[in-house]
Amino acid sequence: MTKILAVRDLHLAMRTGEKLVPVLRGINLNLPQGEVHGLVGESGAGKTMLGRVILDILPPNAVVTAGHVDCATTGSQIKSGGRIFSNRGRSGISLIPQDPMTSLNPVKKIGKQMVEILQLAHTGPPRALQERAEALLAEVRIKKPKEVLKQYPHHLSGGMRQRVLIAMAFSSEPGIIIADEPTTALDVSVQRRVLRLIRDLQKERNTTILFITHDLGVVAKLCDKVSLMHSGMILEQGLVSEVFHSPSHPYTRSLLNAIPRYDQPREKLAPVAEDLQSQLIDEARKYDQQRQV
Amino acid sequence: MSHWYLINRLLLALPTLLGAVTITFVLLRVVPGDPIAMMTGPGATEADIAQLRAHYGLDQSIVDQFIIYLGQLFTGDFGTSISLRQDVGELIAGRLPVTVELVVIAMCIAVGFALILALKGVYWRDRWPERLIDSFIGVIVAIPDFLWALSLILILGVAIPVMPIFGRMDLTISFDSWTNFYLIESLLRGRFEVTRSVLYHMVLPAVSLALPLMAITARVLKSCLNAEMNREYITLARTRGFGRLRIIYREALRNALVPATALSGVQFTFLIGGTVLVERIFGYPGIGNMAIDAVINRDLPLIQGLVLTFAVLFILVNLFIDICITLIDPRLRYA
Ligand SMILES: Nc1ncnc2c1ncn2[C@@H]1O[C@H](COP(=O)(O)OP(=O)(O)O)[C@@H](O)[C@H]1O
Ligand SMILES: [Mg+2]
Fold first, then answer.
1. Which residues pair with A13 in a beta bridge?
2. Which residues, in sequence order, are CB contacts of A48 under 8 Å at separation 6+?
3. Cα–Cα nearest to A53, from A23, A18, A19
C-alpha cells in the first residue's frame, strides 16, 4: 500500500502571552492509502490541533516547533517541513467538522456554497456545477437535493447539515479526510446513519480517513488502525483488533474498561483513574523538561 | 418580509410620534420666554400684545391649545410660524430636502470609509497597518462633529482657503428649483454646474458629520469581522484553499454586517441631531439651522413642527436600518 500521509516527530506549541505551551509532543503517524485511522483521546488531548496541522490551517498563535508533515494527496504532491506551513489549507485534504450547526455559512444558500467549492477545481457553466452539486447531495442520501440546494443552512436539521458538509468534504475528491468528531453533536439515531454514510463513501472511493473521536465503540466498528492520545502524545498505536484484544498501555486498558456494556452491571463502569491521569500529565511535563535540556 | 411588516412598523411609530409632540408642546409652554414679546419688541402696547396673543391662540389654557394643535395636525396643518409669518408645513418642506441630501451624503461617506477601514484592518490583523488603523479610528472617534466642523473651517477655509465654508451653493449661480433637492434635480435637469457647486459646498459639512460616525462604525464592524473570522465556517473555508481576501469579503463580511448594522444603527440617528450644530456652523440652509433660529425667536409652532420632523426622520432611519438587517440576514426573513 502506498503511503499517503506521514507525520514525523511533530511538535506543536501555542503561544499564550510570552509563554509557549506545548500541545503536541512528538507525534508520529503513517497512513497508507485507504486506511481508516482512529484517533482517540479525551478532550484537550490535542486531536483537533493535530488535524489542523495536517490540514495546514493552524490558528495564528500556533507554532510548529519541530517535525514535519508529508502528504502525497491526489491533486498534488506537497511537502511541508519545519516552518513551511502556508496556512492556506492543503489541497487534497478535506475536513468533516465537529459541529454542523456552525460550520456552514449562515447567509448563503447551500447550492451557492457547494458551487463555490466546486468552482475551485472545475471550470464549466454554472448549470453543470449545479447539477454536480445535486448529484453530490444525492450521494449523501439527501432525498430532495434540488430543494435543499435552494435552502439556507438554518432550514436544515443538524443531521442534514452534516450530510451537506460530508458532501462538501468529498466534493473535491480528496485523498485524505480528517473527520473531527463528526457525530459528537448529533442525536444518537442520526449518529449511526452518518457513520454508515461516511464508511460507505470511504469504501467506494478508497479514501484515507483520520477519524477523530473519543468513542472507542465507533473505532471498533469503523477503523483499521487506532492511535490513543493523551497530553499531546500518542501512547499506543496499532491495529484495532490487536489493541482492543491486548492493550499494552494502562491508559488504553482503563479506556476499554470504561466502555459501558450491556452484559455487565452498571457499577463496573470504571472511569479513568485520577492517579493515572496525573501520572500521564507528569510524564508529559518530564518530556518537556528533557527536550529543553 | 412583507408589506405587512412595514405597515406594522409604521403603525407602531404613531405612539412615539404622539409622545414627541406632547413632550415638546408641554416643555415649550412650561419654560419661560414669550414669543409675542420677541416678536413685537419694546414699543408695543398692552392691547397690541393681547391681540397678537389671541391671534395665535396663546390666550387659551394649555390643554385647549394642545387639543386645537392636535386637531390641526390631523388635518395636515402645522400652524403658522410666529417669526416668519408663513405656514410651518411649507417652511419645513422647503428646508427638509437640504438636510436630507446632506445627511444621505454624510452617511454614504461614513459607511464607505468605515467599510474600507474595517476590511483593511482585519486583512492586516496583528501587523502594523492594523495598529495604524486602530489609532486613526481612536483619534477620530474622540472628536465630535461640531469640532470637526470648526477645525475643517480653520484648516481648509481660513489657513488654506480651498473649500467654501458657507451656504449651500455659489450665490452667483441662479437655479429655480422645484423640489429643493438640488443635487438630484440638477443632475436630472442636466445643470451640472449646479451639481458641482452643491457638492463642493457639501464636502466640509458632510465630512464633519461623517467622521465620528465613520470611526464608530468602523470600530464596530471591525470587531464584528474579527469575531466572525474565528467561526467554524471560516475554518472550513480555509481548508478548501480559499484565500484570505476572499474569505473576508465573501464569507465573513455579510455575516459581520448583521450585528454591526444593529450596533451602529443608533449612531445614524445621532447624525440627524448632529445636523443642528453643523448646519449652523456652515450657514447651511437646512432644518437644523432653521431649528436654532426658531428657538432663538421662541417660535413655538415652528419648533413643534421641526421636532415632529426630526422625530419622523429618526423613525425612518431606524426603519431603514431594520430593513437592511432583514435583507442581509436570511434567518430573519419570513419570521
Ligand atoms: N487557540 C488556542 N490557544 C491556546 N491554546 C489552545 C487553543 N486551542 C486549543 N488550545 C489548547 O490545545 C490543547 C489541545 O486542544 P485540542 O486539539 O482542541 O484538543 P481536543 O481536540 O483533543 O479536544 C488544549 O489543551 C487546549 O487548551
Ligand atoms: Mg477537538
1. A22, A63
2. A98, A180, A212
3. A23
- The β-bridge relationship of strands A77-81 and A19-32 is unpaired
Asked whether the predicted pLDDT for residue B234 surpasses 80, the reply is yes
What is this structure's pTM?
0.88
Q: Is A15 in the pocket of ligand 1 (CB under 6 A)?
A: no
Mutate which of A15, A21, A23 to test ligand 1's pocket (most atoms within 8 Å of Cβ)? A23
The residues with which A10 forms a beta bridge, in sequence order, are A27
Instruction: Report chain B residues whose CB lies below 8 A from the CB of A120.
Output: 240-242
CA dist B249 → B135, B143, B177, B217 (Å): 23, 30, 42, 17
**CB within 8 Å: B236 and A88:** no
**The three grid cell numbers given for residue B131, joined into one nine-digit string:** 495598529
- Give the integer Cα–Cα distance in Å for B219 and B115: 10
Angle at A124 between CA A120 and CA A125, to 5 degrees: 120
Closest CA to A127 of A153, A167, B246, A135: A135
Nearest CA to B335 out of A152, A291, A230, A197 is that of: A152
Question: In which band, very low, low, confident or very high, does the pLDDT at A84 lie, cut at 50, 70 and 90?
Answer: very low
**Assigned fold of A3-292:** Rossmann fold (3.40.50)
Q: Give SS3 for A229.
A: strand
Q: Which residue in B233, B251, B330 is closest to A102 by CB distance?
A: B233
Residue spans of the domains in chain A: they are 3-292
The amino acid sitting at B110 is A
Contacts of B248 (CB under 8 A, 6+ apart): B119, B122, B123, B225, B229
C-alpha dist (Å) from residue A196 to A190, A218, A222, B7: 10, 10, 9, 51
Could you please report the per-residue DSSP string of A38-53? EEE--TTSSHHHHHHH
This complex has an ipTM of 0.88
Q: Tell which CATH classification among 3.40.50.620, 1.10.3720.10, 1.20.1530.20, 1.10.260.40 matches the domain B88-332.
A: 1.10.3720.10
Contact assessment for residue A47 and residue A97, using Cβ atoms and an 8 Å cutoff: no
Which residues from chain A sit within 8 angstroms of residue B253, using beta carbons? none
Query: Could you give the 3-state DSSP secondary structure of residue B3?
Result: helix
Helix, strand, coil % over all residues of chain B, rounded to 5: 75, 0, 25
| Amino acid found at A112 | K
Q: Which residue from B minimizes the CA distance to A174?
A: B240
Contact A113, A106 (CB under 8 A): no
Q: Model confidence at A101, in pLDDT bands (50, 70, 90)?
A: very high
Contact call for A91 and B330, based on CB within 8 A: no
Helix-helix angle A110-121:A158-171, to 10 degrees: 10
Per-residue pLDDT tens for B98-130? 999 999 999 999 999 999 999 999 999 989 999
CB atoms within 10 A of CB A20: 14
- Check A97 against B240: CB less than 8 A apart: no
How many CA within 13 A on the CB side of residue B143?
16
Ligand 2 geometric centre to CA of A240 (Å)? 21
